[in-house]
Write a structure and sequence with these properties.
heterodimer; A: 491 residues; alpha/beta; globular; B: 448 residues; 17 strands
Chain lengths: 491, 448
């Protein structure tokens, strides 16, 4: 595909910063405005400061652009950005599927978005939606209870591990100090377990990319609090021995934690609860098509079995004779978010799940898996592990996966996740999701193969059709310039 | 007419573009007969049942949710306590919903995501201007999780010397709850210091702060809306104890109140959701800003300026060696997905207001609170504000009558306020409810 991304700006820079377009300084003490030479601000004198001078700042300097100027600035920025609606976005483990428009409209309904301290009786609609979403997620995961409070997947991991910790403590089993995590797991698993105070035991992968049962046997002990597992795992491969894995962990007195990052491969096909998992999180922004918003917000609801339900964060929603109310579970771990999490994301997840229903959810997974397998069959890359489900880890072999990815940008697609998981050398972890059409998959396959067929020179000088050319990331880290103030000081 | 798309009639996902013929073609290319053959799931753990979730059309769902939300009572909220509502201009809704922003993800390929990177760089820059501190990350989940991360940062940078985090006795209980969980896996412990008529009791704080203190946390404005008068002294007490001074605040207050850097703040946390987000049932946007010294200890994502191959300025995620996808259990934090889109909205809203607009909005928060507390205090049996301080947006009112009963009556009249205890109510006023303060005062009078 012929592709050229928008570029604005002059020869030194792309679209100027807000601060380069205008900087206006207003006095707070005395409250009379002054502007610099390129200011377009009208400089209206505001009201005098309502506070004694020693409680206020002296002045405030910010951009002071007009509304039309702002509209143009942000529109240009948007045109310099890739999204799911721009084209294929097959980032492995990120599940960048199409986000239906209508969920935005229903989430934006101001009637649902109340202050979190309203009394239960006055917000029955909001509580009903949360209750129903708890219920939907419990059904999908095969779990008994769900909290919607964690504001992201990693926050869900942290919550789930705290719940597991509280469970062990309640059973006078406080000596358990280790969480086992497969080497190929998401980095957040390690970080979340460590945040909760656990020592992390890294589990090497078996030759087939799956958990090695002997290694797991050797790793578990009376120190084991939990095993955190992604299934299908991060090379897209289903842990077929899941029942044995569950037995090994449970026999040692540990709990089994399900990382929901790859749940899109299993909707209506298999459920973590049925596989023996005790606690799980859902990445509703991935699986249930709520927009990722350039890096968030997401939401990471946590599901648990009955034994763990009393430890969930507070508050939970329950229903009594048609009345919905918030309550604190008996032995709740307390709070993991200031209020109730990311409401807007939860509404979108509810709307998406309800739109699809049983058959749609099941079909979404079937098509996600079909798309991954079809794409894999169409590209001339080695794929070390299989059979895989919704994503596959191709290898760039003797080419640099990062260079191949940069070249793919020129072909009008977003490249896969590169150089991860480390299990696969020069990995290109690819997850097309169910939302890509046959034509789009063929375009993607062509981009894969064209990039691989290009010369080293073409790869190293790519990309050339994106807003910016190859960016020097080493210098950015060595000499961090993190604000326009820092840029200004340099000049 | 129906609202069905061409996939509405099939049994599948309306967002999977496959026609039956294409599905067959793809299965053949893969070399299997059916989709089920692609699932490598043992029979023992296959799910053969029904989830019992009925599929609805877009039109049906819109109607359903509209009906559901109509069950919420129409009440004017005079509620605050760490979650504040200001009018969000249409520009913010309109531009932030452009799909290139909304349906994008973390900028792992910076060359093709310059737009969002620049917007986040600008968000960081606005926070730097407002706090005076040179480093701001591009978002935490909310103020409470930001506080938790600040305590963990304090614990890391003062690893060898101390374990105590000092927090005010009057702090939002949710914030304290989150902090407790964030330090659950560390050696850190929480101790509270007393307040004096709504502000920090400096003598008591000085007595409590010592060698074992790693962080002193204070807020401006406080959860009760009082404006802290002696921030510099609090900073000095923290300094003398060789502890970090962490200041909690919000993005509107920063437009008017003393610059955190000027009073010695080492870390600033707080809410930025007051701009850019509607009430959203407590959804937040956490600020995190700090000094250069702690740059490599900062949790979350950072966007930095660099150059591209043509020598032009361009932006990229940077210092990722702090992050969990590289450092695993040794990362500064587990935060990965953050609140980037909310940060975009907040930056748009700040830019929309400009310096004049932000100072005026913040000034309004002081004036409206003063005016409303005066009006309430004129009622027999009400004293407001309770604390003899300047206030920002909110204040306490002491009532002779039981506060819960008054709040119930107010609710019946269509107004929500906080009940703090048996004879204390808390009232919050901003630009969104300022037009209804007179009606609130009348309802108050009737409720007494």
């Amino acid at each position: 595909m012929n592709y050229d991304q928008a570029r604005y700006g002059d020869e030194d820079r792309y679209e100027p910063l807000l601060s380069e377009k205008d900087t206006t300084s207003v006095d707070v003490v005395g409250r009379s405005p002054t502007s610099n030479q390129n200011s377009s601000s009208s400089g209206d004198v505001g009201e005098t400061s309502p506070l004694p001078d020693d409680l206020t700042r002296d002045s405030l300097e910010l951009p002071g652009l007009s509304e039309p100027e702002l509209a143009r600035h942000y529109t240009r920025l948007s045109q310099m950005n890739w999204s799911v609606e721009s084209g294929p976005y097959p980032l492995g483990s990120c599940t960048m599927k199409y986000n239906p428009s209508f969920t935005e409209d229903v989430a934006a309904d101001p009637k649902g978005a109340v202050h979190p301290d309203r009394s239960d009786g006055t917000i029955q609609g909001t509580l009903e939606l949360l209750y129903d979403l708890q219920d939907y997620l419990a059904r999908i995961g095969g779990m008994d209870a769900v909290t919607l409070q964690p504001p992201a997947g990693a926050a869900g991991e942290f919550t789930g591990i705290l719940v597991a910790k509280a469970y062990h403590e309640a059973n006078d089993d406080e000596e358990r100090s280790e969480v086992i995590v497969p080497a190929s797991a998401h980095g957040t698993n390690f970080a979340s377990a460590a945040m909760a105070g656990y020592d992390v035991v890294e589990l090497p992968s078996g030759e087939d990319g799956r958990v090695d049962l002997d290694a797991l046997d050797a790793a578990v002990s009376e120190e084991t609090a939990a095993l955190m597992l992604t299934n299908p795992n991060t090379v897209g491969v289903f842990e077929r021995d899941i029942e044995e894995i569950a037995d090994i962990v449970h026999d040692a007195g540990g709990l089994l934690y399900y990382d929901g990052a790859n749940l899109n491969a299993l909707l209506g096909q298999a459920r973590p609860g049925d596989m023996g998992f005790d606690v799980m999180h859902y990445n509703v922004h991935k699986t249930f098509a709520t927009p990722h918003g350039g890096g968030g917000p997401g939401a990471g609801p946590v599901g648990v079995t009955e034994e763990l339900a009393e430890f969930l964060p507070s508050p939970q929603v329950r229903e009594r004779e048609g009345h919905y109310e918030l309550y604190e579970p008996d032995r709740s771990i307390g709070k993991v978010h200031g209020y109730q999490g990311n409401w807007l994301v939860l509404v979108k997840a509810y709307a998406y799940i309800a739109r699809l229903g049983d058959s749609g959810l099941k079909d979404a997974s079937a098509k996600a898996v079909l798309n991954a397998n079809y794409l894999a069959s169409q590209i001339d890359y080695e794929i070390p592990y299989g059979p895989f489900h919704h994503e596959f880890a191709a290898t760039a072999g003797d080419r640099d996966a990062a260079d191949v990815a940069k070249r793919m940008l020129d072909y009008g697609v977003h490249p896969p996740t590169t150089k991860w998981p480390e299990l696969v050398p020069e990995a290109m972890l690819t997850e097309p999701t169910e939302a890509e059409s046959l034509d789009s998959l063929n375009d993607l396959a062509a981009a894969f193969d064209s990039a691989m067929a290009d010369s080293d020179e073409e790869l190293e000088s790519a990309p050339s059709k994106t807003t910016a050319g190859r960016i020097d990331q080493a210098t950015a880290a060595r000499n961090p310039r993190l604000s326009w103030r820092a840029l200004g000081e340099e000049e | 007419m129906t609202d069905t798309s061409r996939h509405e009639h099939s049994d599948g996902s309306p967002y999977a573009p496959h026609t039956p013929d294409q599905t067959e073609e793809m299965l053949a290319a893969v070399g299997v007969e059916s989709e089920a053959d692609l699932f490598d799931v043992p029979a023992e753990v296959r799910f053969d049942g029904d989830l019992g979730i009925e599929s609805r059309s877009e039109r049906e769902l819109r109607a359903e949710l509209s009906e559901t939300f109509a069950k919420n009572q129409n009440i004017t909220e005079f509620l605050g306590r760490d979650h504040h509502s200001h009018y969000v201009p249409s520009l913010v809704d309109d531009l932030s919903r452009r799909s290139e922003f909304l349906t994008s993800y973390t900028q792992y390929q910076p060359e093709i995501t310059q737009g969002f990177l620049q917007a986040l760089f600008e968000y960081q820059s606005l926070l730097v201007e407002l706090t005076g501190l040179p480093v701001a990350n591009c978002s935490m989940y909310d103020a409470a999780t930001g506080l938790g991360e600040a305590a963990r940062l304090a614990g890391r940078v003062r690893q060898a010397s101390g374990t105590t985090v000092l927090i005010p006795e009057i702090l939002h209980e949710n914030k304290r709850g989150v902090l407790e969980n964030y330090i659950d896996g560390t050696d850190l412990e929480i101790r509270t210091y007393p307040m004096d008529d709504g502000n920090v009791d400096l003598d008591a704080l000085a007595d409590l702060a010592g060698e074992e203190t790693v962080m002193v946390y204070a807020e401006n404005p406080t959860v009760r809306g009082t404006i802290e008068e002696r921030l510099t002294e609090i900073g000095e007490i923290a300094d003398e104890a060789d502890a970090l001074f962490c200041l909690g605040t919000d993005v509107v207050a920063l437009g008017l109140l003393e610059v955190p850097e000027r009073v010695g703040a080492d870390v600033v946390v707080g809410e930025a959701d007051a701009l850019g987000l509607p009430t959203a049932y407590g959804m937040g946007l956490g600020i995190f800003a700090t000094r250069e010294t702690f740059l490599r200890q900062v949790p979350g994502r950072l966007v930095g300026a660099s150059e591209d191959a043509a020598g032009k300025r361009a932006f990229t995620l940077t210092l990722q060696t702090r992050e969990q996808h590289i450092r695993k259990e040794r990362a500064t934090s587990n935060i990965c997905t953050n609140q980037a889109w909310v940060a975009l909205r907040t930056a748009m809203h700040i830019a929309y207001l400009g310096p004049d607009g932000l100072v005026d909005l913040a000034g309004q928060c002081v004036r409206e609170a003063e005016s409303l507390s005066d009006s309430l205090s004129d009622l027999r049996g009400v004293k407001a504000p309770v604390h003899d301080r300047h206030h920002f947006r909110e204040f306490l009112a002491r009532t002779d009558q039981p506060a819960p009963a008054i709040a119930r009556d107010l609710e019946a009249s269509g107004f929500a306020v906080h009940v703090v205890d048996d004879h204390l109510l808390q009232v919050c006023v901003t630009d969104v409810n300022a037009a209804e303060t007179e009606a609130l005062v009348e309802a108050f009078e009737e409720a007494l």
